[in-house]
Structure formats: structure tokens, C-alpha cells
Amino acid sequence: MCCPLLHKNILAYALLLIMPSARMQSQSIVQEDSLHAENRKAITFSLVGLSLAGGIGGKYWVTDAYAAKLEVRGSYDLSTVDRADTTLPNQKHIAVFLSALGTFELHFGNSKNLSPFVALYGGITWRKNEDDYYYRTSTIVSNPSMVGLTGGMAFGIEYWLSRNISVGGQQAVEAFYNVSKGSSTTSDFEIQNTTSSLLLSFYF
């Protein structure tokens, strides 16, 4: 009569040992399948084509859903036109662009690898265009500069290749307000759909 009772006691003790272990394993799986990015930091690169015109900066996750980013954008372009007709001027064009932006990202989903997001950003910009016209007897230089404000909204996605590296992409709509200073001062406002950007982040 004692054997069935002994077997029941052994089974009861075994269940008590197995249940906490199974619960801990279940919690571990949930943690591995969810994104935990709070307090993480990253160096970010935003690539437009094969250049860094999109920007370089730093990113900080305030929570698992919200991230803040500061970045600097810049580009430099030089082009020349040499004409065979001596009655027409040769031309050199230089374009410089710099901006500093602050971005706030709202991420959706709870996957450890994939995170769609919406971003709002704003900042200041500086542009300078210089056109030099070389005649046989003289040179005419035009070099207006523009200072302005910019803001926009972007839709994108971030995918983690590993815990420390992520790639992604975004498409943005931007608004610009520029004040141009040359021979006269003018201002203009424009809204444009910018080129898509490839995102690369290194976390530490």
C-alpha cells in the first residue's frame, strides 16, 4: 500500500521542480523575442546614393519605443564647363551644403529584429553656391549664400543584423524656409519629397 503513495509523492515533488523551471524558460523566450533597446546608444550613418549627404550622428533610445537622434549633414559639389566658343564664358560651379538636425523616432512592433518607425525632425541649414564666369578679359563671380530652417516627417524601418549592427531605410517629406543673401536679400518656402536614405547604425 505504501508504494502507490510513494510514487504520488515523488511525482508531486517532480512537478514542483519542473514548473518553476518551465516558467523561467518561457520568460527567457519572451525576452529574446522582444526588442530591448532602452538606454542603448549608436553611431548612425544616413547614405543617399554612394555619399554621406544624408548625415552622420548619434542615436539614444529613451525607451523601447522612443529614440532621439542628432546628426550633421553635408555635401560638396564642383563642376566646370569649358566652351570652345571664345565669345562664351567658361564656368565653374561650387555648391556647399551643411545642416544640423534633431530627430525624434517612434517605433512600432515588438520584434527583436524588425522595427518600423515614424520620425519627426527639424534643424538649421546653410547653403552656398558660387558661380565663376571666366571671359577672355574678365571674371564675374556670383556667390549667394542661404541660411534657413528645415523640418520634416519620415517613414522607415530598422532591421538588426546583430545586437550591435542594424540597417534600414526611410523616405522623408521636408519643408524648407530659406533666406538668400547675395546682391539682394530674398526668402522662399518649399516642400519636397526627398530621396530615400539607407540607414546604418553601430550600437555600443
Report on the structure:
15% of the residues lie in helices and 62% in strands. The protein has 204 residues and is α+β, with helices and mostly antiparallel strands. It has an eight-stranded antiparallel beta barrel. The longest helix is centred in the N-terminal third of the chain and has 31 residues.
Question: Would you spell out the secondary-structure blueprint of this structure?
Answer:
Blueprint: H1 2-32, E1 41-48, E2 51-61, E3 66-81, E4 90-107, E5 114-134, E6 139-142, E7 145-160, E8 165-181, E9 185-193, E10 197-203
Encode the helix/strand succession as letters: HEEEEEEEEEE
Number of helices: 1
- Which residues sit in consecutive blocks of at least 5 with pLDDT less than 50? 14-33
Tell me the total number of β-strands. Answer: 10
The whole-angstrom Rg is: 29 Å
Overall pLDDT: 77
Taken from the alpha-carbon principal axes, the silhouette is elongated
Please state how the strands of the largest beta sheet are arranged side by side. Answer: 1-2-3-4-5-7-8-10
Name the beta content range.
Answer: over 45%
User: What's the N-to-C terminus distance?
Assistant: 64 Å
Q: Indicate the structural class.
A: alpha+beta
State the share of residues found in helices, binned by percent: 10-25%
**What oligomeric arrangement do these chains adopt?**
single chain
Largest sheet: 8 strands, antiparallel, barrel
